[in-house]
């Protein structure tokens, strides 16, 4: 599990396997292969529907996005969105606990779900001729989810075990969890998606039912279907099963503005670990639209900066900190949170090499950004990262799952269905001068929170935790 702050990495940076990359000198300037354009419309009850035909294989992906995540919780109820995600597999008036998954498997499909700060998503990939079956199943549990209190108690223990295995037993995950709590004072991003254990201990079945009734309303959800499908047939099926769900108002959301930070923040976390670790989180602007505004332009330039620093093997951070006989770090990385429903961060992280300290790595990471601010970047660096992004857009089309997820993610952020094309166009426009400018303006102490993992001795006799109950995902 990657720690929460690393989740702000731009998805298309994370989806570029090195084996798929063109040679360093290659130039890819043409558009992606021609595809049928996605269609978007709304049902009478307010639910959004997005259809993306892709007829290269007889498979289809059906996804349901709900615009509710951990950021919609309140203090004392952290983890509720994630717990409810688990409970959505526990039944309806016509489907018993676990029966949803068994039915999808019997169709020859696979399915799962996920919860983030910004949204909750459910997906199934099935043979295209079984699409109606999963639409019927998903619409049923969206509208009629129900389960007994005892079922909730059992599943809550599964979530607690998930927290123990993925966070409590993972020093870096704990570091990022606490770093979020220090970085943000007002933003609900300060709470962990999985929830604080004390909140899980006090959570009730009725809490989850109330959360479901409040947020799982048609106007707060989108159905995304991609693959070998006929849009008109999809329209008939979606209207038949989802269109009959009664409309309800989406609860009002109160804007929460993070106060200005004045001075560097630092936190340290001690835990049994093999190596120390340091991460720097800088508050930065986020992309809110594709309009040319100073904030949007800076968010895009910061994304290019992150790729110049760490967007390919042998990029600036790698060359400067991890190579040579006197290297400072075993590994380094950088990432920019381009967009999200809440405030975003630019992160720099590193694992000190033997004999080196987190403070040395921290100083070296900041120096690399300062060097860009002084000297700028080369045209070759810009061309390289832009070429890789364009290549990634082409290779991305091989996966209908990726296509559906990108469409759903754009909807969650309130962006248009051609957000991927617009993003590529805007990134291609970023200049070396813009990258140099943001490197000089967003990396001061007043935007920075530093987190350091101080390793304690590891018990050589300690055995890895064995889950007492099965963890779904």
Automatic annotation (TrEMBL):
GO terms for molecular function: metal ion binding; metalloendopeptidase activity. Residues 1-26 form the signal peptide. This is Insulinase family protein. Residues 202-387 form the Peptidase M16 C-terminal domain. The keyword Signal applies. Keywords: Signal. The lineage of its organism: Bacteria, Pseudomonadati, Pseudomonadota, Betaproteobacteria, Burkholderiales. Belongs to the peptidase M16 family. It comes from Ramlibacter cellulosilyticus. The keyword Chaperone does not apply. GO terms for biological process: proteolysis. Residues 49-194 form the Peptidase M16 N-terminal domain. Its cofactor is Zn(2+). PANTHER family: METALLOPROTEASE, MITOCHONDRIAL-PROCESSING PEPTIDASE SUBUNIT ALPHA. It holds the Pfam family Peptidase_M16.
